[in-house]
Please model this.
Amino acid sequence: MTPSDKTHLNLDQALDALKTDFVERNPASARQFAQQTRDMPGGNSRSVLFYAPFPLTMASGRGAELTDLDGHTYSDFIAEYTAGVYGHSAPEIREAVLAAMDNGINLTGHNLYEGKLARLLCERFPQVEQVRFTNSGTEANLMAITAALHFTGRRRIVVFTGGYHGGVLGFGTTAAPTTVPFDFLVLPYNDIERARAEIRAHAAEIAAVLVEPMLGASGCIPAAPGFLAALREATNESGALLIADEVMVSRLAPQGLFMQAGVRADITTLGKYIGGGMSFGAFGARADIMALFDPRGGPLLHSGTFNNNVVTMAAGHAGLTRLYPPEAAAHLSARGEALRQRLNALCTASDVAMQFTGVGSAMNAHFVRGPLLRSEDLAAADPRLRQLFFFHLLAQGVYISPRGFMVLSLPVTDEAIEKLVGAVDRFIQRYRPLLA
Model:
């Protein structure tokens, strides 16, 4: 048996031990999962929440803590994949929702909340002159693409490897099987020269460049210095529009990551936390682009029964004004930066092939060495190490994403952060031979 074989054997043994403990500790979640498989394929209607042998069923949440069906309590470091910035029980959100419901839930008309939230978003994100609401970030990106196609009269959309713009807009090196059939040109993320060359070569065809300022679902890989500015320059030259997908990342800086980089997009998509924990999406742009959707004469119809529902509108306004004004976003991002530096210091001190990438309060663990510029750079990582990390942290009472994604929410305490740091340190020390 070679040393490599022994390492693989030890890794499998370590992972099997953690999974066995997980199964023994969670019989109620196991039963719930088995029940749900009768009515839903894989017991699931949201793929990202599934992991083998079965996912935990959460029974309740308060602050930044979750309690599962078996009574175990976890420090929550997923925060609904960034949408849960307010935690699970913010009284300000609850009060706003109940007050809105007191006056009727479905009013079948314009209401008093949507205009207030629209004004707030236009003030907060200066690149957004006008805005429309949707039910999700996926819908927001679909409408942004549609606007770009009609505004420019062109048909091709540039996207980037590892980009995720919603449930029907996912990309590896090519479009995912569930991706809608627009004409996409997929380019390597953070490759400035390739992007410039391809946009010039196809200038007459390109309606828009759609880009995340940090790859979210593909591992919290930030845009390299100059990448967004190069895309702005290239789209200006070609007459294409630049679409900033800030559905996940607008929370990471007071006015979003594009504005923090000094780049003004033509269209911006928003979502997640802005709805106060409710279903939400939005797309906004220059007024001449948004005029396409003006029902007084614009050519594009944009409907949706729940686009302006009073619960989301009220919760969103309360959250942004009472809990997450720009200064709160800056403070939470600073806490995240400090945490990521501490975690990376642990990795460096132990000389392991492990690192944490990200911006502000969103980060991801990776089990590779060296700089990470795009999702392709993660190909060498052993996926079993992500599982090992995930189940180790669960056993320590820390809830993160199975892919190593971690997020801070407002109610996360300093004690919870120390708990996370200690759990990561114990992981490194316990499994150091497997991380070398």
